[in-house]
Amino acid sequence: MKRVFLFSDGSSLGNPGPGGYCAILRYKDTEKVISGGEPHTTNNRMELRAVIEGLKALKEPCIVEIYSDSNYVVQAINQWLAGWVRKNFKNVKNPDLWKEFVEVAKPHRIKAIWVKGHAGHEENERCDKIAKQMAQMQKA
């Protein structure tokens, strides 16, 4: 299996408000940037949307290391998700996105790694900048 790095970030201007997301996929020397936005959303939804869209762009099963500055996303993937699935996402926020994540994650071996936001992590800073640009575009 190929080892792929997925760097992600989400942003919303207001919570809820216009939002944007960005994922950078890296395999060896190849990089792909995926971004988008929604007119009315939350920061957590955009953080998760970035990961989902990054995973959707993979064309074959991979070992995926997800780097995110979102404790919500990292802890959910690494710790909470199995329990949420068992209870069918009862009382879980954003169940639609978490169900989508479960589906797009199935073919992959995934590990999520937390990185401190706004601390000079190159890919996180790039994702943050693009996610904010995408959120700004939703205001128009």
UniProtKB/TrEMBL annotation:
Q: Which residues form the RNase H type-1 domain?
A: 1-136
Catalyzed reaction equations: Endonucleolytic cleavage to 5'-phosphomonoester
Task: Tell me if Glycoprotein is a UniProt keyword of this record.
Answer: no
Q: Which InterPro entries match?
A: RNase_H, RNaseH-like_sf, RNaseH_domain, RNaseH_sf, RNaseHI
GO-annotated cellular components: cytoplasm
Necessary cofactors? Mg(2+)
EC number(s) given by UniProt: 3.1.26.4
UniProt keyword list: Cytoplasm, Endonuclease, Hydrolase, Magnesium, Metal-binding, Nuclease
Q: Which SUPFAM superfamilies match?
A: Ribonuclease H-like
Q: Name one GO molecular function term.
A: nucleic acid binding
Q: Name one Pfam family in it.
A: RNase_H
Q: Which family does it belong to?
A: Belongs to the RNase H family.
List the protein's name: Ribonuclease H
Q: Which organism is it from?
A: Nitratiruptor tergarcus DSM 16512
Q: Which gene encodes it?
A: rnhA
